[in-house]
Records
---
Amino acid sequence: MDTPDPDTLRHKLIELRSEHRDLDTAITRLTTDPWPDQLRLTRMKKRKLLLKDAIARIESRLIPDLDA
């Protein structure tokens, strides 16, 4: 499997962070609703966690190994 170059990873990181921020805003807005759609809220929170994990994986790949 080809490893993406650092510029590609940085671009993907920007996209993921933006989506994560947008979801955070949408979740906050949804929770202020008197009767929030709990299923939608749960799905959004799950997606946000998946994004957080993906962001962490990419950040880890961008940090050079100390052993190298």
Note: The radius of gyration is 16 Å.
---
Amino acid sequence: MRIDVVLCDYGQVSGDKLFISGGGIDRMYVPVGKGPHVVNFCIAGTVTVPPSQAVQDHTLSLRLETEDDEPAALFGDTSGAVVGGQLHLSGSSAPAIDDQTIAFAFNFQGVPLAEVGGYEMVCSLDGEDLRRIFFRVEAVN
């Protein structure tokens, strides 16, 4: 399986197509001061599943970590941040003969980060980390 992802301002899936706005960002800016440092972003992309693995459902998860590979602390919560969902591929009884591509978009609005600094969104399929997207949150006046 393969996962292709982009960090963007906004994403949406409609009619099996992925629509993104403001793609390819790697910096987010917050006001100088004590946290929470609130950011908005989207992780959008596609998962490509080969025919041999298209007869079962798969789990996509996103895990936010610091640049030191530690769970990211949200303001007031040190348990970390993980989201995910199921990719349902078992809708047809016919055997799959081509790769299947599933588009996704996870919009994160008002994420209260405890610290400024570097972060990585770790993208996993069925528990295997396949992609990491780095971004930095910087405080500006």
Note: DSSP finds no helices and ten strands in the chain.
---
Amino acid sequence: MNLKKNEFEKPLTRRSRLHEILIALIKQQKDLELMDDNVQVFESPINNSAKYDPSKIVERNQRIIKKYQSLVRSAIALDALLESEDYDISDRRNA
């Protein structure tokens, strides 16, 4: 029973550690953008289509997604490094 409890706690600890690392990386970003849904693009009349270019919105959103994916991959890599060093992030010391 104790083994199952430890197996259950380890993923939660790793997940919370990944969240902490990801949040720290996000806080370091100065120009982090949010995706734009721009629903009015598809509801606007044809003559206003020059103002709203759906392809530019899609390209921008793809760029933003790639940035977030990069941050997540960086957090996973940092977590793996910390795990290999057996580092306790909550105590900020080696275990």
Note: The longest strand covers residues 87-88.
---
Amino acid sequence: MNEERIENIEAKITFQEDLIEELNKTVYQQQQKLARLEAICESLVRHMESLDEAGNVSRTANEKPPHY
């Protein structure tokens, strides 16, 4: 009886260790994706700033038309 209980506890611990490892992998992959997305956003901001400095961005694009 006692040995069966110990085996059940060991099985649960093994399952939990596997689950923790999978969760760690998932968190790591999400962090990698987040880092890539942040790099893309920073690149887009720099690109937009360079376009603005070059005068290619129309200032009137965000202005309301006269009939509003």
Note: The two ends are 82 Å apart (CA to CA).
